[in-house]
Amino acid sequence: MQSLLFDPGVQRIADEVTGPITYEPEVISRELAEKWFNAIRAQADWRSGMRMMYERMVGVPRLHGHYAVEDPAIPPVLLAALSVVKQHVDAPFNSIGLNLYRDEHDSVAPHSDTLHELVAHQPIVLLSLGATRTMTIRRKEPPHLKTELELEAGSLLLMGWNAQLHYDHGIPKLRYPVGPRISVAFRVRSDIQSETWGTR
Question: Is the per-residue pLDDT at 96 higher than 60?
Answer without folding.
Answer: yes
